[in-house]
Each structure stands twice: as C-alpha cells, then as structure tokens.
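Lab notebook, entry 402. We have the chain sequence and a SMILES string for guanosine-5'-triphosphate, and the next step in the workflow is to get a structural model of the bound complex before anyone spends time on docking refinements. Request logged below.

Task: model protein plus guanosine-5'-triphosphate, output structure tokens.
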Amino acid sequence: MIGVDRGEGAALTELSELLRTAGVSAVGETVQRRDEPDPDRYFGKGKLEELKESITASGANLVACDDELAPRQERNLERELGVPVIDRTAVILDIFADHAHTAEGKLQVELAQLEYNLARMRGLWTHLERLGAGIGTRGPGESQIETDRRLARDRISSLRRKLKSVEKNRSVMRKRRQNASVPLIALAGYTNAGKSTLMKAVTGSDVGIGDRPFHTLDPTTRAFEYQGASYVMTDTVGFIEKLPHQLVEAFKATLEETALSDLILLVIDASSGDAGIRRELAASESVLDEIGAGDSPRLIVLNKTDRLSGEEVEDLRLGWPDACFVSALTGEGIEDLLEVVARTFEEQMEPVELLVPYGEGARLHELHEVAAAIERRDEATGVRVSARLPSTEVYRFVDLAV
Ligand SMILES: Nc1nc2c(ncn2[C@@H]2O[C@H](COP(=O)(O)OP(=O)(O)OP(=O)(O)O)[C@@H](O)[C@H]2O)c(=O)[nH]1
Ligand SMILES: [Mg+2]
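Result returned:
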C-alpha cells in the first residue's frame, strides 16, 4: 500500500480494510511526507527506490495507492515497479461491483466503472497520439482505443437510459410516500458505522449487516411506528473519505432518497476515537453537500457506545451535547433516540381543527395529502377534521379553521 502524508498523518488502515474486503491482503506500506503527490510518479525518486526494495523483500505482486491516480501516474508507476498498480477508486469500484445485487445497483456500478475506465483510455490515447504525431503514423493501438472508447460511450448512454426508467419507478413510489405524508428518515454516514444495525433495531426488519465496508448498496425502506405515529426509514450506501465522484454521480438517484428525506440520522462510530469521529463526520458532510443535502435537517447519532466505558461516553457527551448516544447492537439509547426524533417532527407540525363543508371533496383530498393523524367526524354542515399539519402548510387551510 502506498500513500502520501499531507501533514495530517496518513493512516492506511482504511485502505487495508478496503483491500481486505476486495479479497487482497496487505503485506506492507510505504508513505511519503509531502504536500502533494508527484504529478508523474506519485512518489519522489528516493521513495520510489525504497518502494521497489520493499516490493522485492515482501514478494508483493500488487501495489494499491490510497489516492486516485492520474492515468499517467499509474502508467509510470507500473513501468518503474514491474507490478500492476491500482488506486483507491479501483478498489472501491471493485467492492461495489461485488456487493451490488439489484438491477439498479448493478447498472449504477457498471456506469461508474465505465466512466472510470473511459477516463483511463482517454489518457492512454492522448499519450499514443503524442507518440503518433512524433513519428507521423497512426498506430493500430490508437484506432483500437478509439473503437473501445466509442463502445464505452454507447454503453454509457444506454446505461443512463436504463437508469432513467428505473428512476421513474422509484420517484413514483417516493411520491406516493410523500403524499401519505409519513415522515421520511434517512440513515446516512460512514460505511460500517452501524446504519443497517440501527435500521434493524428500530424497524425490526431483517436487513443485511456485515463487518466490512460497503455491505449495503441498495436502498431499503421500512415503516415503523412510535407512540402511535408512523415513520418511514431508509438505509442506503455508506460514505467514505474521497468517495469516488463517479460513484456519487452514478448513485445520484439512490442518494436522492437521502437528500429528499425530512430528517437525516447521521450515524457515526463513537468507538473510533475523537479524531475518528471528526473524520467520519467531515467525510459524511462532504458527501451530503455533494448530493444537495447540505442543509437538510439532521441529527448526529453516535453509535457503538457498548464499546466504550461509561466515563468515555460522558466525556463524549460534553463534546457532542446535541448528539444521541446509542448502541444499535444492544438497543441502549434507541428509545431516547426515537423520542428525540418524534419531538423533532412534532415541532414541525401544528394541531388544527377544521370544518370542511360537504361538496368540497377536493379540499379534503388536499388535506389528506399533507396532514397527519387525521380524525374525521361527519357533522350537519360538513366534515369536522382534527389533524396535524406541517407548519408551512397551515396557511392553506385557515379559511376552514373552527
Ligand atoms: N459493538 C457494536 N457493534 C456494532 C454496533 N452497530 C453495528 N455494529 C457492527 O458494526 C458492523 C457494521 O454494521 P452495519 O450495520 O452493517 O454498518 P453499516 O453502516 O450499515 O455499513 P455499510 O452498509 O457497509 O455502509 C457490524 O459488524 C455490526 O455488527 C453497535 O452498536 N455496537
Ligand atoms: Mg449497511
């Protein structure tokens, strides 16, 4: 494993986790302290020599880089080192390809992989073009790559079209949920933080849980009730630092579930230490920004408290006074979390008493679209309705208030 320490102390533990998930075992790491990777070879000359020696000594047959490599860096490294070189993005794409189960997930991963490969082919192609211009010929390699690029582009357009139609289905379902005006809660956060475990603890539904990054790729939505009110919870793909933008792009539709939710539970592994918590939070915030959920209401959930001592939890509470502390595994704190969630939604809803005159079915319909906890009673002049309305919608019905 290779990486650059930009002064924050590069830890390749995450890369080794990713590699383990992809079925590769790491035998060593070489890190260089520098502001930016070398644009041509990633490392400087001396470090490259050191790397060569450690490859020979360890018998490694693959080099994995913690950053996304420019095609040129990748090519130069392979030439110098004599072993295949892959970057972080390729490793993550590989894991995604392995974990995608639904038709949509598979399409999304293939799209991301093609985009990634196309960029690489383009790099190779410009390189050959330069050579070609030098010796004044068009090499066969070049036309082959042109064909490959065209095929890749065709496939990309066809994948985009297919994804569009899947998306349409999804938005119909989402619309139906929104109309039912059941609050939608989305789980978001670092991969392996325990989102799916929390989903299971809250909804009782049997979702996939695994001690490896990116176990969940396909979104799951489950309903649950708390104190008589209904909610819907969605669990989706986890985040990571430097999440390949091709993936964010390809998973836009999936991630939209998160962006459109009424409340985001930002799940963080509380046992990853203060620096770890901050890192997970920063990585999650940056993905949320990228998917347009930067301003969505959210609640920080610090999970896995069972791994901490009572004292450690108290210390964390001081630093994170607004966070909810839970153990999705033991169920500790879940009740308090749901209480906070319920209160959050209550604050956004106002109780109303309305009288809808007979013959105004359209208004009743309108009401049903946005109101919750509707109770209706037929009276002499119309339907008497008690309900809770989102504060932002109350003005639409003031004329019916009693
Ligand atoms: N000790 C402890 N382990 C937990 C807790 N919650 C989750 N885990 C473990 O953490 C690992 C990851 O849990 P998941 O629920 O799959 O995590 P996730 O956030 O859904 O991860 P991805 O879907 O891969 O992004 C599993 O091994 C869980 O058993 C907890 O509260 N305490
Ligand atoms: Mg999961």
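Notes for the group: Residues 2-95 form a domain with the Rossmann fold fold (CATH 3.40.50.11060). Worth checking against the assay data. The first helix runs from residue 13 to 21.
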